[in-house]
Input
Amino acid sequence: MTEDATKTAVIIEDDPDVRSLLDEVFRAAGFRTVLAGTGLEGVAAVAEHRPVITTLDINLPGIDGFEAARRIRAVSGTFIIMLSALGEESDVVLGLTSGADEYLVKPFRPRELRARIEALLRRPRNPDPATASVGAAPAAPAGAPAAVPAVARNPSEAAAIPSHTTAGQWHSHRDISLDLDSHTVLVAQREVELTPTEFDLLATLLESKRRVRSKADLALVLRGEAFGSASYVGEPDKRAIEAHMANLRRKIGDSTAAPRYIETVRGVGYRLTAHTDGTAAED
Output
């Protein structure tokens, strides 16, 4: 593939008027666009063109946007912006659970979409699953102990995790570790696949250690803005963070009732758990 993927966007939308508007917004932002009118066409377009951003309607002919998002996530690390007239909280949560990074309710403002696009471009993108070594565990930094199968480990044992002082930019907490360079996440030496948004949230919490990060803080991170900036963070953005955090916890095997990695500080935000087991705040 010789095309510049950083300048390619796939637009999956069955409404010709909305599709045309999206095309204009992306072209104005300097993108090459690929248009698709059904979910299956869109999944195929993403696999072929490997875009950096994909917009996805929910009510599509054939498979719907939720199923399309799940199939896209299996082959691509593209950022997914889900666009839908469905604005109920349950719809937003389902969209984010399916693999979307952003969820905008129609009718949307082109200026807001452009801002979301620019924010996504400021974030590093996960490598495509299709280009990764199938079935191969990521190489641990030099000197790290050999991986131990999760089923054979005693949960109370200290984890054999990579050190951030060796190759890569590793951040670790208990038996979970993350490499910023390769966008790799290991839990008990087993690789876990996260969406770009989930990866960024986990990286932020690992870098913050025991410092609490509010939902507004995390929303700003996803926009590519600094903590404490004056930008407005609304309730929909905070609910999106809650949904992403729930997905992240599920994938790394964490629990809100007895958190091992991430705890909720009621009314404040999220932080890493203490290194010693104990009672932590619940959601």
Observations:
- Confidence is low (pLDDT under 50) at residues 132-166, 277-283.
- Residues 263 and 273 are 6 Å apart (CA to CA).
